[in-house]
Design a protein that fits this description.
This protein has 146 residues and is of the alpha/beta class. The chain has a single domain, classed as Rossmann fold (3-Layer(aba) Sandwich). The chain is built from 4 helices and 3 strands; from the N terminus they run H-H-E-H-E-E-H. The termini are far apart.
């Protein structure tokens, strides 16, 4: 979308190469990608909440004091011109130490209010920058994860 500057697009081939290096290589790649980034944006698809490395990224970002937010992408069309079903909120799986509430109570997961793929795309593109700014401002108000 070109909204988050400096974020390279990772091709399937690039990800497969990272994966071949095993867990340590994946962790190192994620850590490197997060360096200097003030916020982690989780694109929430139908399988996102169950993915091990998504959980790692969320936890790593939160512990590093970075903003964290999610964007549901189920209404964007995939390469096969199909829309997926809405996935679970991955922030529901984390609890804040001090309050005992789930991370989803403070980390926003935005669900574009459209079913048309182009409208969803435009909504995300037009709002992502302000969502990131809000997540960065919100993060210092809350403590660590349990």
């Amino acid at each position: 979308m070109g909204v988050v500057e400096g974020t390279p697009i990772l091709s399937d081939n690039d990800w497969e190469q990272v994966e071949r290096g095993g867990d340590k290589a994946i962790q190192a790649w994620i850590d490197e990608q997060m360096k200097g980034a003030p916020c982690a944006v989780v694109l929430i698809g139908s399988q996102t909440a169950g993915r091990r490395w998504v959980k790692y990224e969320i936890k790593k970002a939160w512990h590093a004091g970075k903003g964290v937010l999610g964007v549901y992408i189920h209404n964007l069309k995939d390469q096969g011109d199909k829309q997926a079903t809405k996935g679970a909120n991955p922030f529901d799986q984390f609890t804040l130490k001090l309050s005992g509430t789930t991370l989803s109570a403070v980390a926003q997961a935005y669900n574009p209010p459209y079913s048309d793929s182009q409208a969803v795309y435009n909504y995300i593109k037009n709002n992502l920058e302000s969502w990131v700014e809000d997540a960065i401002k919100t993060r210092p108000k809350y403590g660590e994860l349990a």
